[in-house]
Amino acid sequence: METLEFEVSADRAGGRLDHFLCESAPHLSRSRIQSLIRSGDVLLNARPAAKPGETVRVHDRISLREPPRPPLRAEPEDIALEIIFEDADIIVVNKPAGLVTHPAVGHAEGTLVNALLHHSAALSGGTGAERPGIVHRLDKDTSGLIVIAKNDAAHAALAAQFVERTMEKRYLALARGWPRVESGSIDAPIARHRHERKKMAVAADGHGRAALTTYRLLQRLKPSDIGLAASLLECRLHSGRTHQIRVHLKHLGHPILGDTLYGGPVSDVTPRPRRQMLHAWILAFTHPRTGEALRFVAPLPADFLAYLDHVPAPTS
């Protein structure tokens, strides 16, 4: 059983206990924290906390005991996959929007991993029983290319390419407004949002993890066509932080259409987007066994095409 210890500083005193713990232990959901408080697993000054809404004061000492959860284990499910490429070592899939990458709390089934287990008996050990084959992930509502490892050697080789940043990852994003500069870079560190645990944010100097995104304007979308000025941007990831493109484009002043977490309302867009308009378009890497240079392009999904007057052609 893991125990976390905290002391309340002056700048965080006066708030609710559950809010304090959400900020202090961002890997736990608010509902999970409230459950731990009610079960007596949160001690406030060495005594069980009375309730989630209890007020914390300066120098209060808080202990949070986190009983281990039963491990998730993914099961095969007959879910259709759009496979772009497959051999004895890897599978490249064009993931649709709405499909979660791997099981997690709240998404124990119906994921890409469940589909992969039905498709292939051979997958790498991944990073746990709930993530066989998974080398990297895409957000639920991001569509596009993801590479899967079918054995541990392939997994290690692909993971090394991610760490060494030799894997090319290009995305298409439909974003609000027209950028003043048609191409550029966003070099800004990213950290967990201080007050909203589901969000990430550009961090102040000296905090967060380094993150670099470069972008290029491909098309301008006119207000007369879709209800507002918007842009089709090609974004290249040079690091792999959570929600990186979404956070960086918001920081640039051009949040992604349909991104209700970072981009605000969508009622002024026609047709109204039903998800964040982000697509993992191009994925290029070295084959983990043969050393061959591989490059894949994912066709644009129908909801993207509804906004565009022409389909962009990939460049080298």
Please tell me about this protein's structure.
- It is a single chain.
- It is globular and about 65 Å long.
- The model has no long low-confidence stretch (mean pLDDT 92).
- It has 7 helices and 15 strands.
- It has 316 residues and is of the alpha+beta class.
- α1 crosses α2 (30-38).
- The strands form 3 sheets. Strands 5, 6, 7, 8, 9, 12, 13, 14 and 15 form a 9-stranded mixed beta sheet that branches.
- The chain has 3 domains: 2-66, RNA-binding S4 domain (Structural Genomics Hypothetical 15.5 Kd Protein In mrcA-pckA Intergenic Region, Chain A, Roll); 83-164, 2-Layer Sandwich (Pseudouridine synthase); 168-305, Pseudouridine synthase, CATH 3.30.2350.
CATH architecture of the largest domain: 2-Layer Sandwich
State the CATH superfamily name of the largest domain.
Pseudouridine synthase
Quickly name the level 1 CATH class of the largest domain: Alpha Beta
Approximately how much beta-strand content do the residues carry?
A: 25-35%
| Total helical segments | 7
| CA(first)-CA(last) distance | 51 Å
User: Under CATH, the topology of the largest domain is which?
Assistant: Pseudouridine synthase
**Helical amount:** 10-25%
* Biggest beta sheet attributes: 9 strands, mixed
Number of extended strands: 15
Number of domains: 3
Structural features:
316 residues, alpha+beta, Structural Genomics Hypothetical 15.5 Kd Protein In mrcA-pckA Intergenic Region, Chain A, Pseudouridine synthase, nine-stranded mixed beta sheet, four-stranded antiparallel beta sheet, 7 helices
